[in-house]
Amino acid sequence: MIRISAAATLLLCCSAVFAQVPSTDPASPQPVTQAVPAAANAAAPAVATTEGKTVAEFQKIEDAWSDAENRKDQYALELVLSPLLVDISASGDITNRNQQLVLVMNNDDKSLNLDQKVITVRLLGDIAVTNGTYTFRHKVNGSEVEEKGVFTHVFERVRSGWLCTNSQRTVLRTESTAKSRKTSTAQEPFHIPFFSRGDKSTTSTTTTTTPPQQ
User: Fold this and answer.
1) DSSP one-letter string for 47-86
2) Number of folded domains that form the chain
3) What's the whole-model pTM score?
């Protein structure tokens, strides 16, 4: 009776030992724990770049846009402008792509010339924001004028290319060199000098002549 109890006890101990030994069967699932850095889930901030392939790529797009308007090429313009385009001109007019196409194709101004230069590009996934300067020569009331300003264009990646979905331009106002200008210590965008209107206030001096006393 004592021998049977001893044998049973030995059998239970062996079973407990084998139960604690991990299986070496390669088919058995093994828990895998991987450490994921906290920074991996953080979105990288969009940094504006002023040089390199990115700027060169979007400069080609802006050149194609300018050339299409100058040559009144509807097909080339459609390859740059998105059907969802919202265009805000320097004068505050808001138009869509179809309206922009009509304006370009129906413009009989022979002196019209648009030139756009990319300064910075920010990439936000499938969205790109370009900022730059532009020069626009055209006629106003029969007189040729040259409009200089800055632009912001928002592009969306479509298949293998980019289409502009939002465009906004702002004119840089200049004053005559004969007038005094105020100097600003603030950093101007794209290193473009911004000319203020200067001090318009004038001081007039009135001289009162007292009649001689008699």
Assistant:
1) --B-SSHHHHHHHHHHHHHHHHHHHT-HHHHHTTEEEEEE
2) 1
3) 0.63
